[in-house]
Amino acid sequence: MTSFDHRAALLRIPTEPGVYRMLDAEGTPLYIGKAKNLKRRVGSYFGRTLDRRMQLMVAQIAAIEVTITLSEGEALLLESDLIKTHQPRFNVLLRDDKSYPFIYLSTQDAFPRLSFYRGPRQGEGRYFGPYPSAWAVREMLQLLQKLFPVRQCRDSFYRSRTRACLQYQIKRCTGPCVGLIGQQDYARDVAHSIKFLEGRTDEVIAELGERMEQAAAALEFERAAGLRDQIATLRQIQRRQHVTADGGDVDIVAALEEAGTFCVQVFFVRAGRHLGNQAFFPRVPAEADQAAVLAGFLAQFYVDKEIPPEVLLNAEPDDTEFLTAALSERAGRRVALKVRLHGERARLLEMAVNNAALALNTRLGSRAGYGRRLEALRDLLDLEDLPRRMECVDISHTGGERTVASCVVFDDEGPRKSDYRRFNIEGITPGDDYAALEQALRRRYRRVQTGEVPLPDLLFIDGGKGQLRAVAGVLDALGIDGVKLVGVAKGPDRKAGAEQLWLVDGLAEGQEERLGARFDAQGCPTKGETPIVAGADSPALHLVQQIRDEAHRFALTGHRQRRDKARKTSPLEDIPGVGPKRRQNLLRAFGGLRGLTRALPDEIARVDGISQTLAQQIHDALHAQRERA
């Protein structure tokens, strides 16, 4: 045991609630904890049998510091802040400690907007959630666009419209920007959206059913059929999302351990609907048990997040009484931590445990591979969540000939080859990579607008200066935001491993101000004037290189196929009226294409089957092709 005189230290520790810090000989925190009674809690480390983990910690204690707080809730907050700051080696550390996104509805507007939101919920309007990831929010917003076409465009985009945009044409919006729908009808779609997000889907279905019957009675069969399809879609979504939990707000938290690694799985249920789940892998000291992990996780997880009335657990955490009091104080109402469950709640907990086991097995199976690189990329780029979908666009040509653009897709499991796409670039100045990039992005992201393709979290571009400006301009013109742009530029020596990463966040309000603020006169991004240089041994850079190289390979393969096909094709095939027999006669008469190109129209007209008019067309077409080449 340590030579630290714990009896003398305990004499100076009060009995009030607060936070204590166990320090080693160098003053580094070994462990930070909270207590309703500081003296009693600190004294328990020296007056009872401890597990091996606590014995190792106590043996290193050289000093104890305490901070008194006014309540358990304040102690919970202070403990979480100190753990984040010092990251003591004997504490359970929650590393994925990001805020959760919501769906925001600007109810204060005449024609409210639905949008993605993350941050403090202090402004006007309604907030729905939390959702476990940005991906879950975007998926829900896409569903809402199909069900109830409430606008989702930015206010600046909405105010500047003089005619309806593509979203109106594909029936994802009702065109309030140009007065194509009245405020009353629009408010009905908003009300249905609110009821759906609140879990009151049955009410929406009932209202739509009444309107369908009225339309059928009025012989408006097309409108009745549309309402019927809407009801069918709602019922399908309802079956997929239905969880019950007695229709209440519940979080289900299950912790499992295997091979020294802990997984904590959290399920979010709001108004009886499953909004999604997320797996966490906290850093856990050696020999920590399930109770300690759950206690440490809950204290840090809920310190700045919405706390539901009930939290279902698969084991009883340490300090349950203190945690319950602290969480209740934070929530402003009673919060219940429940372990012994029956019926429906037991089924929900079993579902969370099974998902924790699956996530743990997946983690252990891929720790040294793709999953590790994905986590490193999240940390390198300071992302809120692990990127669920990443795209990379590249251009390939030979001296401007037969330009092809590629778009490759990676998700949380690796390359998603079924989503790869190539674009044959036409109508640009040969060799103009910026124009090729713009054309490819417009064609690709119009499909994102229509909902055919999900919006990616990251978009990589092979380049780091003017390329990013071109990409930002295209996305802005299409009204697309929420995508982090990453330019992958070659380093000063153009060596692999020295790549520079330039970042541009999802676009904000105001086109000219946005583009002007993000780029200097030479087209260089101004945000973070120094690019990120990860280093040749960075797992994150290895993933970026893999994505970039895959885009380059895919574009190059497409370009070579297109170029080889063009070179194997006779230019005569593009001339109307010149079929296989006439081509054969022409090439035989002049000894090949070169001789034919040098011939005059009168000479060409002497060939069997070639009129003077057709001879002139052949001559003009071949010379025009030679000039373009």
Structure write-up:
The protein has 629 residues and is an alpha+beta fold. It is built from 22 helices and 18 strands. The protein has helices at residues 6-11, 38-43, 52-58, 72-86, 134-147, 155-159, 166-169, 183-197, 201-217, 221-241, 290-301, 320-331, 343-366, 370-381, 433-449, 466-477, 511-518, 539-568, 580-590, 593-598, 601-604, 612-628; strands at 18-23, 29-35, 63-68, 102-105, 114-117, 126-128, 250-258, 261-270, 273-280, 310-313, 336-338, 389-398, 401-411, 414-415, 421-424, 458-461, 484-489, 500-504. The strands form 4 sheets. Strands 12, 13, 14, 15, 16, 17 and 18 form a 7-stranded mixed sheet that branches. A 5-stranded mixed sheet has the order 9-8-7-10-11, sandwiched between helices. It has a 3-stranded antiparallel sheet with strand order 2-1-3. A hairpin with a 2-residue loop joins strand 8 (261-270) and strand 9. Helix 14 packs across helix 18. The longest helix is centred in the C-terminal third of the chain and has 30 residues, at 539-568. Residues 506-528 have low confidence and may be disordered.
